[in-house]
Structures are given as C-alpha cells and as structure tokens.
Structure prediction request, 270 residues.
Amino acid sequence: MKRYASRDGRLRLFVGDSRRLAGIATGSVGVILTSPPYWVRGRGRAQAERYARELATGFGAEWRRVLADHGDLWLVIGDRHDGLEWVGIDGLVTAGLRRSGWRLQSKGLWAQVRSRERWDNRVNHLLRFRKAGHPVRPGASTLCWMLALPRSHPESIWDATPDPVIRAVLALSARRGAVLDPFAGAGTVGRIVAALGRLTGLDLLHTPEIERQLIEACVAAGACDGVTRRREPTVDSLAAETHAAVVDLLRLASRSGIMGTGTLRRGTRS
Prediction:
C-alpha cells in the first residue's frame, strides 16, 4: 500500500486495497464517511444481495477494527429499479452490516435534481451505523436534501457527494479521532475535512503551556496587568495558571462536542 502525507503528517492518502487498512491503527478513527461504488450492473434480488453481502463482509471487519468504539460509520449509497421492482439497497446493506455487528442509528436521503441520470439512479441513501452496544442518542435533525450533482475534478471518473451533505454529516458525528474515507472517489470528504480542520492530531486551540508562555512573554516585553497595573504574569488580576486551566477546559469542550457546531446547514431542519 502506497502512502502519501502532507508536510505536517495530518492529511494522509493511502493507495491500495481498502479491504486491508494495515496502515491505520486500531481504534484511531472517529468517523468513517464514504460512498462505495453503486450497484449499477446486474438484475434481480440475488445479485443485489450479493453486492450488499460483499460490502458488509469484505469491508466491514476492517472498518470495525480501525473505528473507535463510539465512532460513526456513514455510508452514502444509491438505489435503483431493476425492471421488476425497487431493489431497496439500503435495507439489504443494513441487514448485511447488522449480521457483522453494526447497528443502524439514523437515515437520510439526498435526491438529485436537474440530473441527467436515469430516473431511478437519482436516489441516494445516507446510513449512519455504530458498533453494537454503542448507540447514539437520536437527534432532532432531518437529513434530507434535493441538490444537483456537483462537479467533480476534471480528471475524476467518480461523482461527488454535495458539500452540504458532507458538512451536515460531520457536524452530527463523533468529534474525536481522524476521519476516514476508504473509497475516496472524487475526494470531497478529504477536501472538506481539511477545510474544517478535522485532521489527525489537529487541535483547534493552543495548549495550556503555550498560554503560560504567551503571558510570560508579554510581561518580559514590558506589559502589565490591566487591573493591577503590575508587571507580573497575570491577566485581569487572574494568574497565568487560571488562564491555562480555562484553555484546557475549552480544548476539552471542543473535542467532546459540548461547544456544538452552530447552525444546521441548508437542507436540514430541527
């Protein structure tokens, strides 16, 4: 498996068989968000069930290994009419993953508008799974969009999932751990994760130690406390240790999701 990484090592690209994720540590992933290749060939329920079974057994074991116990697995998958009936790929995949130890937590839908796709190939399911025994409390958000198919990179042969869908899914997901897209496709997930700062080991806030160093550097440069008027390592009469503790609490809140994600993106309501 070939590996590529950004200079700081926080954005990584693996090229190989995504059924074997040897380069990723066990339990190191907080969110798996991916869109497997859609079932577009063949007819009949037997072949559709085979597709779902291969997805669950071929990839599900490695997903379980790398995903943290309280992590989220999101699948974006299509559906189709095989000439006799709607296949119901979402139900088949859910049943296959359930037998592999996954539990469905929530569902969403993205319907393509202004699409040149065949009429039955415009429905895209969003399925959120967690490992058995680690459920997530149901939320009030409705995941439903009617959006046009976004443009992919000129050199990509894969269709992209719209940005609002990816952003909304990440907003609802576990905050800790890396984000993994085992199929990559058009690269939309990686691009948005990088823009949001959801990279391996990346913190949104500086450390308590840096907070202390900043205060001490200000004093060394001649600054004084705005309240006491003294040249000492305090800010508004509060000791540097107090400010360091506040930074530590803010870091904890940002990682745990207590700080929230603000407003819901277009296409969702509560």
Notes: The chain has two domains: 2-202, 208-256.
